[in-house]
Structure formats: C-alpha cells, structure tokens
Amino acid sequence: MKEIDLRSDTVTQPTKGMLDAMFSAKVGDDVFGEDETVNALQEKLANLFGMEAGLFCPSGTMTNQIAIKCFTNPMDEVICDQTAHVYRYEGGGIAFNSLASVRLLNGYRGKITAEMVEPEINADNIHYPSSTLVVLENTINKGGGACVTLKEIEPIANLCKSKNLSLHLDGARIFNALTTTGDSAKDYGKYFDGISVCLSKGLGTPVGSVLLGNKAMIKKAARIRKILGGGMRQAGFLAAAGIYALDNHIDRLKIDHLHANKLAEWLLQTNYVKSVMPPESNIVLFDVDDKLAAEDVVKLFAKAGLKCNTTGPKTIRFVTHLDISSSDIDKCENIITKLNAWN
Ligand SMILES: *Cc1c(COP(=O)(O)O)cnc(C)c1O
C-alpha cells in the first residue's frame, strides 16, 4: 500500500516535465554570474514581485538569514512574532550569523499589527539595541498556514518606513498566500525591502529559494551567500526546476487548499480531535482530545498508512501538496473517520 505523506509539502518528487526541463537547461558558472538559467529565474521572480533583483540560494533558511544579515548590524534587534520560522526553526541563526537580538511579539496565529510593533521599536538610547528590522511570514507556518493580506501589511510597512526600519518577508509559501488572498505579487515590491520565496515547498522543486531585493542589497547578499558556502556553480539545472514550477505549479495550489479544507472537515467530525485551526491554505493544524497524546495518534495514523508529524504535545499537522491526489484525499477520509484512537 502506498503511504500518504502529509508531513510536509517538501516531500514532493519532481514531475516528468520538471525533470525534462532540468535535463535540458543551459548552464554556466553561477559564481561568475554566467548561468543563464539561474539569471532567468532570478529575473522572472524579481519582475513578478516588483523587485529589482534576485539571488538563487539552496534553501529558505539561507535566503532569510542572508536578508537578516543584510538589514542589520551586530547589536541590532529584529522584531518578529514568537512563532516566526526565522526565530524558531533556523537554529538560532539570527544570533550566530548576524549577532543580533530578537524582540518577540504575540500575534494571533502569528499575525502581527503595526499597533503591536510600534511600542517595541526601541528609542535611540545607549541602553537599548537598535531596532532595525521587522520580519513577517506569509503564509504563517505555525499559524496553521494563516494568510496575511497586503491591506494588513500596509500599516506595518508604513510604520517601518517612518521609523527607518527594514521590512523582510519570509515568503516560503507566498504563492499559497497569494492564492488565498488574491493579492497581486507585483504589489509586494512596494512594501518589502527583502522577500524570500521557496520553490521546494508547494511549488514542488527538489531544491531552491530566491531572495529578492534592490540591486545594492542583492549585491551584498551575493557576497554573504559566498561566505556561507552557498555559491553554486552550474546551478541552472536546479533553477530550471524553479522556472518550470512557476509556469506550471502555481495555478494548482488551489487544489491543495481544497484538500486541506476537506481534511479539516473530516477531522472535526471525529471523537479524538478537540479542535481544528480553520485552514486558510495547505496546512491543517489540529489538537487531539485532552486525554490523548498527539504522538500516539500519529502512530495510529502511520499504521493506517497516513504519515504526519506532531508540532506540540497535543498538536498534529497535515500539509497537502503536489503529490497528494484527490484519490489520496478520499483514502484520507476513510482513515480519519475510521481511526480508533481510544484503544
Ligand atoms: C520551510 C520554511 C522556510 C525555509 O526552510 P528551508 O527548509 O531552509 O528551505 C522558511 N520559512 C518558513 C515559514 C518555512 O516554512
């Protein structure tokens, strides 16, 4: 029996079309800036988001960490939500790479507002670290794939401009967010100084993220990428997968969202689920009954052929993606509704 893998949207295999595009890519040495496929991918994404330039990197962690390094000096402070990937899941990289401290906010499903940010911006006083950067995330991973609209982002961007702070977006799942909000990618360039876009999540490539910014920032970013060991040579084979994904895998994200909604509906009808965070994209976070442990329920799902992970003692995460078909989702209905978690 084929297992259904809902652990993450990073588990996807490249499609035949994507592999064909990769094999036929024209490549060069990207450390010399001579890989035309990498250059095309960077340009394509920069144009799409209304930014000046882009930089292809091996991972979203690297694009985020490079952006933070570009926008801060040692002893500065970064403001973000306490659930932020840059803070929780990047190994303490802000301290290690940028020698900066972090001010954490307590948003709703990871969403923060200008009213929450403003009082946390430090006054110019030698006792305080200088607040120089705000980081937002969209969609919000730990917020159960919550989506932020540009209308919600605008007041934060205006605040950052007026206080002279940079604004970076961790857009690992930005295309999922755009699918839900209907916002135009092009408008993002008006609000953000840096944007990270992952190609290996919902878009289904094997590797790759692109950092977007203005020309001066991306020039500095290329220097930092080299120092971190992220300068790749004939990287066009990987970039070709990214171009293919942008052309072929954005429209279908709505299917993943539909699948996530169905999973949530079925989970709500069971007697072992206490609550489900209403899905806004391709992530479903749910809590098991008070008397159950999430890890035990994950084991039962695994036995039934459904792989998933816990994200807390009571919380389980499902993520839908390119390799989950509608017949897989039908099988999930069967597994979810028949699961006996009370043995
Ligand atoms: C996955 C993810 C990243 C980047 O992760 P990598 O595995 O380093 O590519 C960054 N931010 C968020 C919110 C993510 O979910």
From TrEMBL:
Organism, per UniProt?
A: Pedobacter flavus
Q: Which InterPro entries does the UniProt record give?
A: ArAA_b-elim_lyase/Thr_aldolase (IPR001597), Low_specificity_L-TA-like (IPR023603), PyrdxlP-dep_Trfase (IPR015424), PyrdxlP-dep_Trfase_major (IPR015421), PyrdxlP-dep_Trfase_small (IPR015422)
Where is each Aromatic amino acid beta-eliminating lyase/threonine aldolase domain found? Answer: 5-290
Q: Does the keyword Electron transport apply?
A: no
Per its UniProt record, what PANTHER family does this chain match? L-THREONINE ALDOLASE (PTHR48097:SF9), L-THREONINE ALDOLASE-RELATED (PTHR48097)
Keywords attached to this Swiss-Prot or TrEMBL record, sorted alphabetically, are: Pyridoxal phosphate
Whether Signal counts among this entry's keywords is: no
**Protein family membership:** Belongs to the threonine aldolase family.
This protein is called: GntG family PLP-dependent aldolase
Q: Which cofactor does it need?
A: pyridoxal 5'-phosphate
The record's annotation in SUPFAM superfamilies points to: PLP-dependent transferases
| Pfam families xref list | Beta_elim_lyase (PF01212)
Q: Which domain of life is it from?
A: Bacteria
